[in-house]
Amino acid sequence: MRRLSYLFSIFYFLFSANSYAQETCKLRGEIRDSIGLPVFDASVSAFNSKNEGIAFTFTDTEGSFVLDLPCNESYDVEVEHIDFESYSENISMDKSKSVRFKMNRGVISLQEAVVRAKQPITVKGDTIEYDADSFRTAADENLEDILKKLPGIQVENGKVFYEGKEITTIKVGNREVLGGNTKLLTKNLPADAIDKVQLNKKFKQNPFANSLSGDEEAMLNIELKEDKKSLLFGNATLGGDAHEHSDVQSKLFYFSPKTDGTFITDFNTYGKEVFTNEDYFAFLGGMSELMEEGSSFSLRDNSNSLRLGSAQDASEMGSFLSALHFGYEPSKKLYTNAFVLFNNNNLSYKSVQERIDANNYERDEQYNDQHLLSTLGRLRVDYTPDSKSQIKYRLSFNYIENEDDQSAQRSSNNIFTGNTNSLLDKTSFSLRQNLSYIRKIGRDNNLGIYMRHQMMDDRPDMEIYSDGNPMVIDTLNFNNIWQQQKFNKNNLQVYGIYNHLLTNTSNLRLKIGTNFSWQNLKNSIYEDNSLITNENFLTDSDFNYSEFYADATYTKKFGIFKFDAGVGIHNFRNKTNLLNASQSLELTKILPHLDAEVKFSNAQALNLSYKQEYKLPNLVDLSNGYDIQNYYSVYRGFLGLQEALYHTANISYGYFNSFTFFNFYVGGTYSRTVDNMQSSSIIFTRTDDNDNTNRPQINSLINNPEQDQTISAYFGANKRFSRFYSLSLNGNVSYLDYSTQIGFSDGINVLSTLTNNTSLIQNYTLTNKFKIKKKVELDAGLNYLRNDFESTAKSEFTTWRPFGKLAWSITDKLLLQSDYSYRLQYDADELINENQALNASIRYNIAKSTYLTFMAGNILGNEQIVNTRFDASLNRTIIDTREVLGRYFIVQLRYKF
To answer: Would you indicate the residue range of the signal peptide (predicted)?
Structure first.
C-alpha cells in the first residue's frame, strides 16, 4: 500500500502544479433591459481572436453571469436572447473585470428588411442553436470536427458529451439515421453539408412521460443545407503489402428527407477493428433495449453474444465483414429501419498454458485453428397513430457458427505425458422480440403495456481425442470422447406500467407483470461412437418457471431533493424434471427499493439507491448430468440449489462545468449476497506416481452458507488548464470477499472444505494531453493495475504501463500518427513479462478527396501477449502466453466522396 500512496502523491502533485499553469481572469457582468430590469436566461459567449469559442454561460434570475477566461487576451463577448436584439463588445482581459450590458427589445417591422450577419449562437427555450459556418474552418472534414469547437460540447473519439453525460441521440433533420449509431454519424457526415447544430437540453425518449419521469437528456439535431438535403457520401479503401496482407473496405452513406441507408464491407488480414462492441450494441438499439427496460427477470442467464475479431486474436487471421442498414420514414407517424451484419473470421495461433502450484508444474503447448461465422439483424418499427399513443416493435436475431480445432502437447513436471486433440463445433441462434404500447391518459398520466419474448437454441458439440492418456470420469476411461448437447430456452414477459401524476411534485407508479421461462437440456456422451448410458452421463431435463409480481413506487420532489420509494411483491414458481429426479419450488417475497437524488445545480448532483432482488437457478445450474467442458474440467449442476438474495446500494456524485473545463465524478457500490450461488470443485489426487490417467476436475454450484460481499469504488477528474494542456485521472477499486468449496478425492473418498477468498483489484490511469498550435496533439500517461488475491495461497500481480499517442499535422496535407506502450508485469516482486508495442502511420492528402497512407504495425516485433491469473478452484497460478500478429507494413489508398 506504500507504493499506492506514492502513486497518489504523484497524482496530487501533478494536479496541484498544473493548476497554476495559466492565470485565469474572471469576467463578471450584469445584463439589463432599457428600463433597468434584469435579463434572465440570456446566452453569453466569449470568442478569441481566432473566433474560437472559449467560454459560454447563461444569465441567472438577477441577470448576472461569470466567465472564466485566460488572462492577457482580448475577447468578443456576444449576448443573445430571443426577445432582445443581439449585443456584442470587445473586452481586453488584462485582469478580472466587472461589466454591465444593456439590451434593447427586438422590433418587428413589416415595411423594411434588415440584412444581418448570422448569429453564432441562438437560444430558443431549451434549445441552443449553433450556426455551423461560424465555427467551421477549412480543415474540418466531418461533424466531429465541428462539434469539438462548439462551447459546452465535448467529443472523444466520436462520442459526444454535454455536462459530462454522453449524448446517445443525434438526429438529422429531426429524424434518427444510421440506426442510431452516433459514432458512425459524427465521423462520416461531411462538415460542409451542415447548416445548424441544435442542442436540446431537455429531450425525452418517451414523449408521453410526465415531468417527474426523470428521463430527460440532451439531444443533438443536425440541419443540413438546402442543397444537401439529399446526400450521398462515404469512402473506399484499397491497401496491402507485397505478399501477406490485404485491406479492402468501402463505406457508403445516403440521406434524404425520408430515407437513409448504410453499406459497409471490409476484408483485412491484420486485425483492423471495423465494428466495435459499442457499434454492435448501438445497431441493436443501445443498452437500454438490450437490458429489457422496465422489466423484471429473476433467473441467472447465459448470454449469447457476437464475437468480433481484433489484432490481439491470432498470429494469422483473415476477417470479412459486411453490414447493411436501411431507414424509411414515409410520414411523421411511421418510422422503420432494418440492419443486418455478417462477419467471418479465420484465426490461427499458438499458445502455451502453464499451471503452477506448490507440488506440480503442468504445461500445455497448444495449436488452435478457429473459424467463426456470425450474423445478426434487427428490425424496428415506430408508429404514432395520434398525439396520445405510440406503438413500438423490435425484432433482433443472432446466429453463430464456431469451429475451434485445438491440438496440445502436455507435460507434467517437465515429463511429456501425451497429446490431445479437441474440436468444438458450436451453432447458436437467438431471437428477441419487443412490443410496447404507450398511451397518454388525460394531461399528465400515461399507461404502458409491454411484451418481451426471447428464444435461444444452443448446440455445442465437442470431441476430445487422447493418444494414450485417457480421461477417467467415475470409473470409465475415455480415449475418444464425443459429446452432443442441445439447449433451448423460451422466455416471455408481459407487464404494464401506469404513471399517475398526483401533484406537480409527486407521482405514483404502479407496475404489474409476469415472467415465464421454458427450458430443455439434452446431452449425450459417446466413447468411440458408443453411447454411454451410465447414471449422470445421459441428460434429458426440462424446466418450467413463472413469476408474478406487483410493484408500487412513490416519487416526491421538493426543492433540490427527489426520491423514489417503492416495494414489490413477487411470487416465484418453478419445476425441474430430470431423468431420475424432480423438484418443485414456490415462494413469495417482498422486495423494497429506494432511489434519491440531490441536484445542487445543473453542474452537480448526488445520487443514492438501494434495492433487494432474488436470483433463482436455471436449468443448467440444476441439471445433474455431466457436461464435459475440456480435457481438464467437467461440470454438473446441483438439483438442491436454492435462490440467492442480493442487497445492493449505490452512491455517486458528479460535477461538470464545460465552461470552466473541469469535470469530476466519484461513486461506489456495496453488494451483499445471502445464499449466493458459488463454485464447488472436486480435485482428484494421484495415489500412484506411475498413474498417467487424467481425472478432470468436477465443478458444480453450492449455496454459500457465508455471506459474500463486494465493495467497489470509482472516480475520475479532467481539467483543461489552457488551450494547450489538459490532465485527466481516473480509477476504480474493487474488493471481493466470497467463499468457494474445494474438495480433494483419491477416487473413493472426498474431503471438502469451505475456502474464503478475497480479491483486491486496483486500476488507475493518468493521462496528459498536449495541443501545440493546432499542429501537434500528444497524449502521455501511465496505467497501474494491481490484483491481490488470497485463498489457500496468496498471489500479487502488478502491471505498469506507460503509454503515449501522437498526432502531428506536419503540413496541411501530411499527417503523422503513432502510439506506444511499454508493459511490465510482476508476480509479487518478480518480473514475469515485459513487452513494448509501437504502431505508426503517415497520411498524405494527394488531392482534395484522396489520401495515401503508409502504416506500420507492431514495429518492435512483439509477437506474444501474456496473461496471468490465480484460479481459486484449482488453487493454482495460471499463465497464458499467446502468439499474436507480428510486424507488418501496409500501403493504403483512400478516396472520400
So the answer is: 1-21
Show the cell assigned to 285.
Answer: 438499439
d(CA 404, CA 370): 4
| pLDDT the model gives residue 231 | 86
Instruction: Centre a 10 Å sphere on the Cβ of residue 344 and count the other Cβ atoms it contains.
Output: 17
In three-state secondary structure terms, 193 is helix
Cα 729 from chain centroid?
Answer: 19
Segment (H or E) for 221: strand 216-224
Locate the domains of the chain by residue range.
2-230, 776-897
At 186 the three-state DSSP class reads helix
Rounded to a whole number of angstroms, the distance between the first and last alpha carbons of the chain is 56
Neighbours of 603 (CB within 10 A): 17
Check if the beta carbon of residue 652 is closer than 8 Å to that of residue 667. Answer: yes
Cβ atoms of residues 597 and 518 within 8 Å = no
How confident is the model at residue 688, as a pLDDT?
63
Give me the pLDDT at residue 139, please: 63
Look up residue 119 and give its DSSP letter.
Answer: P
Per the rule left: phi > 0, alpha: psi between -120 and 50, beta: everything else, 468 is: left
Q: Which of 712, 659, 616 is nearest to 300 (CA)?
A: 616
For 2-230, which CATH superfamily applies? Immunoglobulins (2.60.40.10)
Q: What angle do CA 39, 42, 43 make, to 5 degrees?
A: 155
How many angstroms separate the CA atoms of 737 and 706, rounded?
Answer: 10
Lookup result for grid cell 440492419: 339
For residue 172, which phi and psi values (nearest 5 degrees)? -125, 120
Dump pLDDT digits (tens) for 584-623: 999 999 999 999 999 887 778 899 999 999 999 999 999 9
Query: Nearest CA to 870 among 794, 798, 799?
Result: 794
Burial class (CB within 10 angstroms; exposed 0-12, middle 13-18, buried 19+) of 529? exposed
Which one-letter amino acid corresponds to residue 462?
A: M
**DSSP-derived secondary structure for 315-376:** SEEEEEEEEEEEEEEEETTEEEEEEEEEEEEEEEEEEEEEEE-SS-EEEEEEEEEEEEEEEE
**pLDDT tens figures, 740-787:** 888 888 777 888 888 899 999 999 999 998 988 778 889 999 999 999
Q: Which residues contact 370 (CB under 8 A, 6 or more apart)?
A: 314, 345, 346, 347, 348, 402, 403, 404, 405
- Sheet with 194-204: strands ordered across: 121-124, 127-131, 194-204, 216-224, 170-172, 175-176
3-class secondary structure, 717: strand
Distance between CA atoms of 500 and 509, rounded to whole angstroms? 6
Distances (CA, A) of 781 to 649, 765, 784, 802, 804: 33, 7, 10, 6, 6
Beta bridge partners of 697: 633
Burial of 113 (0-12, 13-18, 19+ CB in 10 A): exposed
Euclidean distance between CA atoms 784 and 766, whole angstroms? 9
pLDDT of residue 818: 95
Half-sphere exposure of 127 (CA within 13 A, CB side): 13
Q: Nearest CA to 578 among 616, 632, 620, 635?
A: 620
CA dihedral of 133, 894, 896, 223, whole degrees rounded to 10? -60
Per residue in 612-664, pLDDT (tens digit) is 999 999 999 999 999 999 888 999 999 999 999 999 999 999 887 766 678 88
